[in-house]
């Protein structure tokens, strides 16, 4: 497949968290880079990240292991294309290979003026490619309906929440988990057109979400899943990205953190541009790797 890109990265201490495990933000940056290279191979022009579907992380990756990422275009539509990504890790000492996650990203091709560029159709060759090509149209329909589904949930949801403590302890006010951070977009954070890398924005969002989760559990949480990232607009070098996160709810062994990114120009007095929103699920693991119970959240 001419669009296939393979990337291998050795996990070094600078890529890891306090447990010596690969930071999810760093992994998202690598995933986005590999997927973008695959998209640009097919488009023959610069591409930008439009969305990243739900991701479920099956395992963590330790320092010294190798991350193998394979990305290829599944289907091209008018100006957008779906890229399928497979992530696995390799232990160089034992030779063990293990799947980490699968992801599907949507990229939009841009012409020299910054507008959308029409794409050539992609002809699948293998049986696997034909299946992915066929299912890609249904996944695209689901992405387009995703925003309306969330709006419908907000309209229908009950405003009253019954709080039941699990262990007799008081619920933690959600406000105590709120995090706000500002990042200045510099040239290393952007592509050759000056647009911020989607993977960099996702990494910043994961960082503030992790801090919000930590404020609830007073421990170091593990990111288990990410609901779809949907980029609502671009940001450029010189923008100030304001990242906000808060724990929306906690369950017995997991919690959901809502996070959003807004962009301001050099004049912070102007209205912000909504760049992205996502929901992330965290767990807290004990020494045996089992999920711990979590306190309740009072909205």
Automatic annotation (TrEMBL):
<dbReference type="GO" id="GO:0005829">
    <property type="term" value="C:cytosol"/>
</dbReference>
<dbReference type="GO" id="GO:0052816">
    <property type="term" value="F:long-chain fatty acyl-CoA hydrolase activity"/>
</dbReference>
<feature type="domain" description="HotDog ACOT-type">
    <location>
        <begin position="175"/>
        <end position="288"/>
    </location>
</feature>
<dbReference type="InterPro" id="IPR040170">
    <property type="entry name" value="Cytosol_ACT"/>
</dbReference>
<keyword id="KW-0276">Fatty acid metabolism</keyword>
<dbReference type="Pfam" id="PF03061">
    <property type="entry name" value="4HBT"/>
</dbReference>
<keyword id="KW-0677">Repeat</keyword>
<dbReference type="InterPro" id="IPR006683">
    <property type="entry name" value="Thioestr_dom"/>
</dbReference>
<dbReference type="GO" id="GO:0006637">
    <property type="term" value="P:acyl-CoA metabolic process"/>
</dbReference>
<feature type="domain" description="HotDog ACOT-type">
    <location>
        <begin position="1"/>
        <end position="113"/>
    </location>
</feature>
<keyword id="KW-0719">Serine esterase</keyword>
<protein>
    <submittedName>
        <fullName>Acyl-coenzyme A thioesterase 11</fullName>
    </submittedName>
</protein>
<keyword id="KW-0378">Hydrolase</keyword>
<dbReference type="InterPro" id="IPR033120">
    <property type="entry name" value="HOTDOG_ACOT"/>
</dbReference>
<comment type="pathway">
    <text>Lipid metabolism; fatty acid metabolism.</text>
</comment>
<keyword id="KW-0963">Cytoplasm</keyword>
<keyword id="KW-0443">Lipid metabolism</keyword>
<dbReference type="GO" id="GO:0052689">
    <property type="term" value="F:carboxylic ester hydrolase activity"/>
</dbReference>
<dbReference type="GO" id="GO:0006631">
    <property type="term" value="P:fatty acid metabolic process"/>
</dbReference>
<dbReference type="InterPro" id="IPR029069">
    <property type="entry name" value="HotDog_dom_sf"/>
</dbReference>
